[in-house]
Amino acid sequence: MSDSRSAHSFHAAHALLADGWAADVRLQVQDGRIAEVTRGQAAQQGDTRVGILVPGLPNLHSHAFQRGMAGLTEIGGGDGDSFWSWRELMYRFLAHLRPDAVQAIAAQAYMEMLESGFTRVGEFHYLHHDADGRPYANRAEMSVQIAAAAAQTGIGLTLLPVFYAHADFGGAPPNPAQRRLIHDVDGFAQLLDGARTALATLPDAVLGIAPHSLRAVTGEELSALLPLTDGPIHIHIAEQVREVEACLAWSGRRPVQWLYEHAPV
Ligand SMILES: [Zn+2]
User: 236 CA distance to ligand 1 centroid (A)?
Assistant: First the structure.
């Protein structure tokens, strides 16, 4: 992030440093980055003075496009409402999103994260394809938009492209509302190549993968995905009661137990 005030200094009565709390800490910032940290120093003229200073927090789990549906699901529609009825509305919403809208919504979400003290986002990114379910000419088009939103706002990005292939345990075929999410392993490897390119000019960006969940990914697919990355791996492992019950019915194991028995957690 560029700033016409290229240098700035802060004084904190107390700051949380790598080795714990310290008193009277001065921080000098140059070109948007911390250049120097000194402790046991009195405030100097021009310092921005704060009582307590802590490092920026990472937001470990974001679906940035959902910022655009805030307000649509906050009021319950009756006794039958649940995560699953929320998800139906979310699918109806995402069916309308174009790449430029995804960038604009993500930029708003990231700006608000920065204003709230988050300095890095783990983007669990599952909206990949065009409205009819076909890959864009650049398979990583939506990843390009997410990277652009991170570049525009200055937040650190850990991009976690999501592999989603099935509607339920046991490799059930995906339902039509999921058409913008779906990959096979080969297509997903191409997506990762495109995502790597999309992140190339973004400082400090990290690329990982996100097998969506055990209901959306078979054990064979999970094994095929893991060698595709040396970055972080993120999964919705036990999100819903119904999902835990379905996992028990399918495998005799709860999802976390299944994962421990079948993957290098
Ligand atoms: Zn999630």
Answer: 6
Residue 2 resides in a domain: no
The Å distance, Cα 56 to ligand 1 centre, comes to 22
CA 162–ligand 1 middle distance (angstroms):
10
Tokens describing residue 213: 């969940």
- φ, ψ of residue 233 in degrees (nearest 5): -120, 130
- Tell me, yes or no, whether 151 and 49 share the same domain: no
Same domain, yes or no, for 186 and 96? yes
Expressed in angstroms and rounded, the spacing between residue 62 Cα and the centre of ligand 1 is 7
38 and 85 in one domain?
A: no
- Condensed to tens digits (0 to 9), the pLDDT of residues 163-213 reads 999 999 999 999 999 999 999 999 999 999 999 999 999 989 999 999 999
CA angle 59, 89, 104 (to 5 degrees): 50
Contacts 24+ apart (CB under 8 A), 218-223: 218/165, 218/166, 218/170, 218/171, 219/262, 221/163, 221/165, 221/185, 222/262, 222/263
Structural domain tally of the chain?
Answer: 2
31 Cα to the center of ligand 1, angstroms:
34
